[in-house]
Amino acid sequence: MTFDPTTIIRRRRKKLRSSRSNSSSTQNTELDSQERTVISFNPNTDLDETVRENSVRRFFGKDQTPFIMDAKTTGNLGRYFNHSCSPNLFVQNVFVDTHDLRFPWVGFFASSHIRSGTELTWNYNYEVGVVPNKVLYCQCGAQNCRVRLL
């Protein structure tokens, strides 16, 4: 089986459209009927010490929470880069304003020549099992796909 990005993108879009049409009316009704609440979440409390020591969270105190970049509503073009187990981009921390390890700029660099029209992808490098009760399956379609992201 050959890796054809165009076919994979079409399959993803078709699957996304069908899942959105099935669940959007139910979700809108549920969101309208529920009052939105703010959830206080401290990601450091649920971690055992070995997971904490192997992650970036070791740079924070026990009562400090990390800064999280979320490009869901705002961001630059990098927010449209998708995951692939066989990516054509790699991520590098770039320190511009400060050398504090908690505040890097994130730079994306091509790992090889990328032809015009090719989807830009990078490896999210999630560790399976780190987020309790969360399973996220990979749908990149690469030959070396690891099947699960979380």
From TrEMBL:
<dbReference type="GO" id="GO:0032259">
    <property type="term" value="P:methylation"/>
</dbReference>
<dbReference type="InterPro" id="IPR046341">
    <property type="entry name" value="SET_dom_sf"/>
</dbReference>
<keyword id="KW-0489">Methyltransferase</keyword>
<dbReference type="GO" id="GO:0010629">
    <property type="term" value="P:negative regulation of gene expression"/>
</dbReference>
<dbReference type="GO" id="GO:0070828">
    <property type="term" value="P:heterochromatin organization"/>
</dbReference>
<feature type="domain" description="Post-SET">
    <location>
        <begin position="134"/>
        <end position="150"/>
    </location>
</feature>
<dbReference type="Pfam" id="PF00856">
    <property type="entry name" value="SET"/>
</dbReference>
<keyword id="KW-0949">S-adenosyl-L-methionine</keyword>
<keyword id="KW-0539">Nucleus</keyword>
<keyword id="KW-0808">Transferase</keyword>
<feature type="compositionally biased region" description="Polar residues">
    <location>
        <begin position="26"/>
        <end position="39"/>
    </location>
</feature>
<feature type="region of interest" description="Disordered">
    <location>
        <begin position="11"/>
        <end position="39"/>
    </location>
</feature>
<dbReference type="InterPro" id="IPR001214">
    <property type="entry name" value="SET_dom"/>
</dbReference>
<protein>
    <submittedName>
        <fullName>GL17700</fullName>
    </submittedName>
</protein>
<dbReference type="GO" id="GO:0046974">
    <property type="term" value="F:histone H3K9 methyltransferase activity"/>
</dbReference>
<dbReference type="GO" id="GO:0005634">
    <property type="term" value="C:nucleus"/>
</dbReference>
<feature type="domain" description="SET">
    <location>
        <begin position="14"/>
        <end position="125"/>
    </location>
</feature>
<dbReference type="InterPro" id="IPR051516">
    <property type="entry name" value="SETDB_methyltransferase"/>
</dbReference>
<dbReference type="InterPro" id="IPR003616">
    <property type="entry name" value="Post-SET_dom"/>
</dbReference>
